[in-house]
Q: What sequence folds into this?
């Protein structure tokens, strides 16, 4: 199956063309887990495997979520927004989404009194342990 | 109050520098309402008014959500993600977020059988009526 890529509005991100935004929400808790970028190939791989794939603007390649950590994301539902530059994926997250060990990458909240961000998320795995041994399961 | 802009990772979007991603979630229903872009000025205006402001890559200016429609967004909570390129706003949405009249901009869902998107969102206002008369309240 092919993703209807023509329906998307492509963005240039840091000079890399033909990307769209991928917003990832936990389908059980409705938490926002992460935001990343995707492209036609990543979308097709996601559709055909049922697991989230992204395009990494840092590594400049397709990236399967969980390829190092085992923390894969199984896709339940896919939505697009009105102008077509963002795709919303509702997923079941294994372990945590964040490479820092948190369930969600949005683990820091703005504190109006301090005028700064404070950590409010909960750590669900030890990133040092997970990323040192790529074959180790959670 | 100033937003700690230095903590963010700035992205270049379609050649416009110094932007970050703004992800907007309904703080009552946890629905994703919209995704747009923000910058230092939009963030400071958002903090100091309590209402969402964005940077429009189309209009190339700061944009107060609801300035035409009256469908303002009151900010409850602000989070940043691990790499600091995305800000999550949890808001109370007046009317609908989408200029097409839907509660959420993500009103189209991918149908695995059809291989295409179908409209699943509910329309909460008539965009023709709202955007024709800018002073008219919902």
A:
């Amino acid at each position: 199956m092919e993703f209807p890529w023509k329906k998307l509005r492509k963005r240039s991100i840091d000079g890399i063309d033909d990307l769209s935004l991928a917003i990832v929400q936990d389908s059980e808790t409705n938490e926002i887990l992460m935001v990343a970028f995707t492209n036609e190939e990543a979308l097709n791989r996601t559709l055909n495997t049922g697991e989230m794939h992204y395009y990494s603007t840092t590594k400049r390649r397709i990236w399967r979520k969980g390829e190092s950590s085992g923390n894969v994301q199984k896709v339940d539902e896919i939505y697009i927004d009105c102008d077509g530059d963002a795709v919303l994926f509702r997923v079941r997250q294994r372990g945590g989404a964040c490479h820092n060990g948190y369930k969600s990458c949005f683990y820091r909240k703005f504190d109006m009194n301090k005028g700064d961000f404070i950590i409010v998320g909960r750590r669900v795995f030890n990133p040092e342990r997970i990323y040192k041994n790529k074959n180790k399961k959670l």
Observations:
- The beta strands of chain B are 11-13, 16-26, 32-38, 53-56, 61-64, 73-80, 86-93, 108-111, 116-119.
